[in-house]
Protein 1
Amino acid sequence: MGAGPCRRIVLLVIVLSTVVLLVCPVVPAQAYYADLGITVDASGFVTIQGQTNYPGLLVENTEMYTSKQQSMWLLNITKQEVFSAFVYSLTLPQGAVIRYVRSSGSVQIQDTTGSLVVHGVGENVSLSIVLQYQLQKQGSALLDNLVYFVLIVLIIVVGILLVYEYRTEKRTRQVVPPSKTTAPVVEWKGLNPRQQQIMRLLTERAVPLTQTDIQRELQIPKASVSRNLRGLERRDLIEKEQIGMSNLIRVKRP
């Protein structure tokens, strides 16, 4: 084949390639994004709202993403396509306790007014949210709180009773000093006024006195004191005790 036909073939290939490029331009791959708010109710129904260009991702009250085995729930929202960027907030029902969580990108769990909220964000990865959780029974939680409250009240009451009993016992054990009272006035029949004064003095003092003490206290002559003491001794109303050179005089013990 000569040089002319070859040049014509090359020129034809170039023209055909140009036509193909003009008629069938290269279509770039689809870039997905998502900004989602996801809620799950106590019955396992999922609602996904927000903005996204991924077809069919936004749904309302669907059970396609949840399953339950005994008391354990499993939430699985997984899309194999790559998302250039996504962000989501996943709100679980009241009383939910997370047992396991795995998400593409980064994830953070927040407790808001009794409901757990899972925040996630990622770039250039597939969207994947796999979460296992369990619901606590509200009645059981209330009963537990009531039991704790009753126990606290009982502890406080027992403490108050113990303190009261301790203080009462302490007051009972305290020794109350005898109060000083004035000896009652006694009239001794058959005694003269001097003898009655001596008996009253000895009774009020309640301690032995010498004859000098009696004379000084009553301001009566020594001879009168001696005479009246002998009369009281004969009546067996007083007794004397010799201490050295002095006689101690007291009311005779019964």
Protein 2
Amino acid sequence: MKRHAIFTSALAGAALFMVSVPSAAKAPASWDGLVQVKSKKLDLVYLMPGADFRGYSKVMIDPTEIAFEKNWRRNYNNSATGLGGRISEDELAKMINEAVPAATDLFTSAWQKGGYAVVMQPGPDVLRVKTGVVNIRVNAPDRNMAARTRSFSSEAGSATLFIEARDSTTGALLGRAVDQQIVGDNGALWRTSVSNRGDFRDVVQTWANQSVRGMAELKALSPIHQ
């Protein structure tokens, strides 16, 4: 699956994190005290020097933040044919409201399958995990129109992962990672709401699995050296 090399304000509109994601091409060496480390799986990974992940056997998982690319609805509507092809604010809100629990469930299930207890209260052995799927762009959303229409696109769209790990009792920031992916990069296909959901779900599932595997790697590397 192809990757985007450049980020453009990946968390614009993502109110939960209130941070600005650096460009992958010009990523700074440090970010809020975290130091950049190389990763073969994710575009950007930053860790706190001295952080020790070995004591965490449980996780608190915040609801996944969902945010579409800034002006995506406006830009799509400007290119849509007829009023019936446009996306309303209510429809966009519904997309987000449905995506939040769906994405959260994927991350929760991945951590549980990885052997971690998912809990609701902080503790000394509890890692707090915040996730976001942001800068979402859907190239050809399936529209419920009276006329028989078909949406074609070589890709379903794109999205950016943001994940942040903190100690649940102190709130100490331990690490952040960012990754952007092309979604449904499988040639010129007829796009439907079902295929779009499946393509985006597959990408989020991959990110969820990577986050759990990444935790195992962090434990092996702990304490983290600069």
Protein 3
Amino acid sequence: MTGFLIDEAAGKTRATLLLAHGAGAPMDSDFMNMLAAALARQGVRVLRFEFPYMVERRRSGTKKPPDRTPVLLQAFAAALDQAGAESVFIGGKSMGGRMATMLAVERRCRGVVCFGYPFHPPGKPEKTRLDHLPAMQAPLLICQGERDPFGRREEVLGYNLPAACTLHWIEQGDHDFRAPVRTGLLQNQQIKSAALATSKWFSHHNGQQ
């Protein structure tokens, strides 16, 4: 598949996930590499792609800001068409996850998973990004760090999220699922927790046990 970075599932494939990166880091950042590898070990086939601004950033070496939302959604939709549309789940890290939820308002897919959903900009809890979620046409899983500045646990639990939304909390995790050193929780363990929860959620929504 042209343009995809593919991590094949170990053993039987439980699901295929079309996975988008966040605003500031590419599809092969340390976090994305660890996440894709952890998901693959749990039987998830992962297809990673990059938005146009990140493709240009990689080509030119110039740090461009993210594209505007219509451009991001168009690129995500094109990747979804190439990946097989309704046969795959979609999702992403932070901004990529938000774009997946917005795409799921317009397009059908098996489900959406977000790793660190940006519920609001850091320090601006009044500027929530929730209005479109009830219009999604697919179930939603959000793996969220309890200390994420884009939406801490105590904040998120106060939101009126759709019934089709499942939350999986990453213990003491920040936006990249890192916990304070004093906890003894390692980032790769936290990512493994998210990958395991995601694989189980996929199996449920694929009608598997």
Protein 4
Amino acid sequence: MWEYTEKVKEHYKNPKNVGSIEDADAIGEAGSLSCGDALKIFLKIDANGIVTDAKFQTFGCGSAVASASALTELVIGKHIDEIEKITNQDIANELGGLPPQKMHCSVMGHEALESALANYRGESSDKKSKVVCQCFGVTEELIREVVQHNKLKTIEEVTNYTKAGGGCGKCKDDIQKILNDELQKLGEIAAKKPLTKTQMIIKVNNILENYIAEELRKDNGDIELIDIEGNNIYVNLKGACKNCPSSNLTLKNFVENILREHLGEEVNVIEA
């Protein structure tokens, strides 16, 4: 089972701004019922370009509801020039993070926001691009956009963020070609000089402090790095996390996934 933050649970159980706005100044849609997730957002925007109200309607899992709820909270009170800079990662961060397998819910929220802004400006939001994944209707343009913005490197990550490749799997070769193309643009296909152990320790410590420890401290827990040997990262859980029955799930489903996401490597997290 995936672990969800308290913010995700709260937005799912008590979603904010559910409904519609009859005289909305902007309406955006993303996903489709046939693919299992759909989202529609409504924005009320005043003469100064400030979003004064936002509502949403969605069909999907708890993470989809939570992402849509968090998105409406993010945009209310902000100028449209500011909200157009919101990314799917901002939505996930507003929730304290999402399981990697549920990041596509934040992407759907970002798509709906882009659609709404295009609607407000009288532009077409249709992505006239080749559909790569027929199972979920995911276009090449969306895959490229998500790979660039989130620095994805594997087919599994693309599936987590877009659902592409999560059905029959016939599109995986096409996804890999897109990945190779984007990685080549970034100069990341060429072999990299590996980090020294000291550099790796500094990088891991930064990730632990900035993305993991803060969440654990909310429940009176903490974490410290003990050692790194190859792809094995040895840590100690502290405080309330130390003797928690779910400590192994915390290590594998939260700590390990966050480290893999930021390091771009298949590391293993082990309790020392």
